[in-house]
Sequence to fold (374 residues):
Amino acid sequence: MHLYIHIPFCKQACHYCDFHFSTNTANKRAVVEAIAREIALRKAYLPDGDMETIYFGGGTPSMLDEAELHSLLETIHTHFRVAPNAEITLEANPDDLNAATLQMFAKAGINRLSIGIQSFHEPHLRFMNRAHSALEAEQCVKLAQDAGIDNISIDLIYAIPADDHSILLTDLSKAFTLNVPHISAYCLTIEPQTAFGSWLKKKKIRPIEEEYAAQQFEILVQSLGENGYEQYEISNFARNGRYSNHNSSYWKQHPYLGVGPSAHSYNGASREYNISNNARYLEALQKDAIPATIETLSPADQTNEYLLTGLRTKWGVELDKLETLSVGAFALQANAELGRMTRKGWIREEAGILVLTEAGKLFADRIASDLFID
Ligand code: SF4
Fold:
């Protein structure tokens, strides 16, 4: 079983971000209490079983103080059986990490950190409006390791506009010196509801060129590979098999419960989407109501979601499972397209499992959507 807790607060808005968060922290304590209430109300959402992963995401969960984190973890332990070796991840920003906060996280039971470094290049951090400095980005990992947390993932962003690839190469070489077991690397995308989106509309910034992004992705994959990181999902790289168990469970379509404003849940048959508004979330939970909309997944929805997430991973998608989920429609509707992609060298079948080739990884989402069924 898997639990996601969304902490919807940030110090400042990064110019590219379209996640749900608020920079107004006046009601942070009340929202945390409401999330604890939701955990209690939702204890029967998942089938009985040990909680194998817990993931504090956001927003910025490293803004939680000791009492808030303690109250959430205590509530989880009251209502769920947490596996003794559960992976408990907390997303953190470098500016929140110091010896005291890291010790507090470790003492609370956080055994994995996902640190939003994004870049070690000061002008790029300022361009994206990150709250931390390049120096903090470099120092925080060592501080975390000193506090006894060695299961660390760092996030990097590539395709940030630059004259050449030298800044990306420097970012990567700095990342390698940190000796972390996991790196997530995401392409800068410009979403309409963000500062970058509005500047793009006003022509204050230029769009990210596809070719530049593809070149950076290739550099990244090669460099990470040469340094011992396995690309086990398009954007995720791990050394020595230290994958994110939590995120892998999403990609493998395991059921999970998501609590907090904007969190999603999945039970195998439907998805639930919590409201993306802190005040309205709070108001509902104060009346013991869960402000979520439910979407029942049709066979086509289940098949297409499996394609979209599974094809991005090294585990690929099983043809038998596609047939079961689609009630026999996949072969009928997608076989011709599958043949075309195989001939192009983008996808291959190994013992009933479809996996993307190196060339196909450049177009993962497009390949998946071309195989979608109605
Ligand atoms: S800290 Fe993370 S969640 Fe908050 S605005 Fe920046 S990218 Fe978005």
